[in-house]
Design a protein that fits this description.
Layout: H1 8-28, E1 31-42, E2 47-57, H2 66-69, E3 71-72, H3 75-78, H4 83-90, H5 98-107, E4 127-134, E5 137-144, E6 152-153, E7 159-166, E8 169-176, E9 182-190, E10 195-199, E11 203-207, E12 216-223, E13 229-232, E14 240-242, E15 246-247
Parallel strand pairs: 4-15
Antiparallel strand pairs: 1-2, 2-3, 4-5, 5-12, 6-13, 7-10, 7-12, 8-9, 8-11, 13-14
Length: about 260
């Protein structure tokens, strides 16, 4: 198995903890976790580790051959509180309805511990950690250190749903003034469990304005995936183009 050096050693030890937890869960349901395979892709400055899970149903051991027994564990199995949500997203054949997205996010019972494999923070700006994606959605765990904030932006053709997992988020909503400049019309703090849904031309900004050292973790759905969005300035009427970058921390996919 390839090895990861440097900062990935700490990440790997965290995954080992996760492995132990899921082994216990799976034994209760007569599953056997075969192991963890890791592929390493060298980049220009960093190493990208893609984590894959292999699982085997105990009931299939005696009835199927080796080639059909192994398959990649789905994200719903790695983070079970997301199971219903991911199933809904995987069935999408068009853009997710805003109201249904809100209902699903409000019904979640998910904690920081559940999302541990997908939690990574950036030093310079907030970090968009990709959990999984499909043709009509992407599911992200976004991590914010104190003082980090999004651009002032819209969602340019996507439906967005957000749920706060840990910390307090500050959301500011903007509208266009008669001058063509944007102006803030509402600012509110929201804590764990708060759900926000927006789409298309809704303009807002999300910030972590908590005290130094206080972290913010949010779960986001974009349908379809948000590849570009308009960003705005308080000082002129120009629209900028922002193409957000996702980071696959724990990338679950086919490995057979």
């Amino acid at each position: 198995m390839p090895q990861c050096d440097g900062p990935f050693l700490g990440r790997l030890s965290r995954f080992e903890t996760v492995i132990q937890r899921f082994e216990r869960d799976y034994m209760e349901e007569k599953f056997i976790v075969l192991g963890l395979a890791m592929t390493v892709h060298p980049g220009p400055d960093t190493w990208d580790c893609s984590m894959y899970w292999l699982e085997l149903k105990a009931s299939e051991v005696a009835t199927t051959d080796d080639s059909s027994r192994g398959y990649a564990m789905s994200i719903a199995n790695i983070c079970r509180p997301l199971s219903k949500l991911v199933h809904f997203l995987d069935q999408l054949e068009s853009r997710a309805p805003l109201g249904q997205l809100r209902e699903l996010l409000e019904s979640l019972d998910v904690t920081r511990e559940d999302l541990e494999p997908f939690i990574e923070f950036g030093d310079a700006t907030y970090r968009r950690n990709l959990i999984c994606e499909g043709e009509w959605y992407e599911l992200l765990c976004i991590c914010w250190r104190s003082g980090q904030r999004s651009p002032i932006h819209n969602h340019a053709g996507s439906t967005c749903g957000l749920r706060i997992i840990e910390g307090v988020a500050t959301e500011t909503i903007f509208e266009f003034s008669p001058s063509g400049l944007i102006k803030p019309v509402q600012t509110a703090d929201a804590g764990i469990g708060f759900v926000c849904t927006t789409q298309d031309e809704d303009i807002h900004q999300v910030s972590n304005l908590q005290a130094d050292g206080e972290e913010l973790i949010t779960l986001h759905i974009y349908s379809p995936p948000l590849r570009r969005m308009d960003n705005f300035s308080l000082f002129d009427t120009q629209r900028g183009l922002y193409e957000p970058k996702n980071f696959p921390v724990c990338w679950v996919g086919d490995c057979i």
